[in-house]
Design goal:
The chain has about 280 residues and is of the alpha+beta class. About 35% of the residues lie in helices and about 15% in strands.
Length: about 280
């Protein structure tokens, strides 16, 4: 999520409310806290990458089976999942029990298209690598050049669309209540049924004219005729996309598991001193 306006940051109560609402289910890129002496980075939690739902496999990293790759390894249609070190990103990682907080769609020519606070926008892969602490890529095995073109056209057509703030705020109760469905011993079909019921009550049927990050990526795939999950796009968080990879346990039924491409950037979690 982009940095809120400075006048919003000036009020600590408003900032706390905004952070709680958006962190519950939103998408984060970076946030810096404004102070009278300038900006400072907010410390992240130790070992944030280790937080996960217990029945799910550990998050990939170059240290436990992952691989570091360059941007040249990307193909149009790849999904980039990222994590930053700001307050919003850390909050999302904690509440979703996952090491990622944002999702973007690679459309080729060194560019991604993503839904952030200012709306749907284009950003260069180079900027992503400079601004994020971790960047990992996944690929749909059926993403042909033709499908990637459909996704790119859909994404470009949505540039400038407004961000789905309402959908993000509605994720707050869902992020809490879904944990009952995701208990380690709950069978997969029961978990899927439980989550769909809770999502329908808490999140409703959604809207197709405003997007948050993971919703935008899933809608692009649906538009290209390659739906990744049978669940509605606005029910899914970046953490859900992460666990749709092969050899993991997704919370809701997927139609196609994603293949791990590699990490474009990986930073070991550590406590950062305030600057």
């Amino acid at each position: 999520m982009n940095t809120p306006p400075k006048h919003a940051l000036a009020h600590p109560v408003l900032l706390a409310a905004l952070a709680a609402a958006l962190a519950a289910g939103g998408c984060a890129t970076r946030l810096e806290m404004e102070s009278a002496g300038g900006s400072r980075r907010v410390p992240v939690l130790d070992d944030i990458a280790s937080l996960r739902v217990k029945f799910q496999n550990p998050a990939l990293s170059p240290a436990n089976g992952g691989a570091l790759v360059t941007a040249e390894a990307l193909q149009p249609g790849d999904i980039l999942l990222t994590a930053g070190s700001g307050l919003m990103s850390v909050g999302i990682q904690v509440l979703t029990l996952a090491p990622v907080s944002h999702a973007a769609l690679y459309v080729g020519d060194g560019q991604v298209i993503e839904a952030v606070g200012e709306g749907v926008r284009t950003r260069s892969v180079q900027a992503v690598l400079e601004e994020e602490a971790m960047v990992v890529a996944f690929r749909h095995p059926g993403a042909t050049p033709q499908a990637a073109t459909l996704m790119r056209d859909f994404a470009h057509g949505k540039v400038g669309s407004r961000y789905g703030y309402l959908g993000v705020v509605l994720h707050a109760p869902f992020a809490v209540e879904r944990r009952v469905c995701e208990l380690p011993l709950v069978p997969g079909l029961v978990r899927d049924f439980c989550l769909r019921g809770v999502a329908l009550v808490q999140l409703g049927t959604g809207s197709d004219d405003r997007f948050f990050c993971s919703q935008f990526v899933l809608e692009a795939y649906r538009h290209a005729g390659l739906p990744i999950t049978t669940a509605q796009a606005h029910w899914m968080s970046p953490a859900d996309l992460l666990h749709m990879r092969a050899d993991d346990v997704p919370s809701m039924t997927v139609q196609q598991t994603l293949h791990y491409v590699g990490h474009l950037k990986y930073t070991e979690p550590q406590r950062m001193a305030q600057e």
